[in-house]
Design a protein that fits this description.
alpha/beta; Rossmann fold; 7 strands
Length: 189
């Protein structure tokens, strides 16, 4: 059974082409490894680029999208299977339940909401699934600094930071996912 990677990332490409290049590379490498992808169901931005490249390279792709977002873009050409839900909260809940591992790329408010949702639910013991932050080109340095500031000021425990795995490259992410996949397989034998 393939590992299901849940992607949390932007519905935009950002201001520089390097993000699109990174998303395509990530998707191709995920597909070649035959990991499954769970994502927000849109064709746009980083999320669409990773999903499309992964599907074309061999991944099974599952998009989970709200009625409202689907209505917003009636021409949505999402990839793979599509589940339509009623709310963002329902979407996040399904993504959390279906997925084995969470991968966070650059994105906006929705991406940050998804990151903090899976981090909070992990901290509360609702799941034990890995959360990987792809700090490509140091994109998340300020967030990591903010987390460290919360720790030094006593608002966050160091153990809470350990719930996040920070990777700086696509290849490092894939090594971490492969390690997790191996550990999961080993437990079933």
């Amino acid at each position: 059974m393939a590992i299901k990677i849940c992607l949390f990332c932007g519905s935009r490409f950002g201001n520089e082409n390097l993000w699109k290049i990174m998303a395509n590379e990530l998707g191709k490498k995920i597909g070649k490894k035959k990991f499954d992808v769970v994502y927000g169901g849109g064709e746009w931005g980083l999320m669409g680029a990773v999903a499309k490249a992964a599907e074309f390279s061999g991944s099974k792709v599952l998009g989970i999208i709200t009625n409202e977002l689907l209505e917003f873009d009636k021409n949505n050409q999402s990839f793979g299977e599509l589940i339509i839900v009623n709310s963002i909260n329902e979407r996040k809940k399904q993504m959390i339940n279906i997925s084995d591992i969470f991968l966070v790329l650059p994105g906006g408010i929705g991406t940050l909401d998804e990151l903090f949702e899976v981090w909070t639910t992990k901290q509360l013991g609702e799941h034990k699934k890995p959360i990987i932050l792809l700090n490509y080109k140091n994109f998340f340095d300020n967030l990591i600094e903010f987390i460290d500031k919360n720790i030094s000021n006593g608002f966050l425990l160091e153990d809470h930071k350990k719930h996040l795995t920070v990777c700086s490259s696509v290849d490092e992410v894939l090594r971490k996912v492969s390690e997790y996949s191996y550990k999961k397989l080993k437990k079933t034998l």
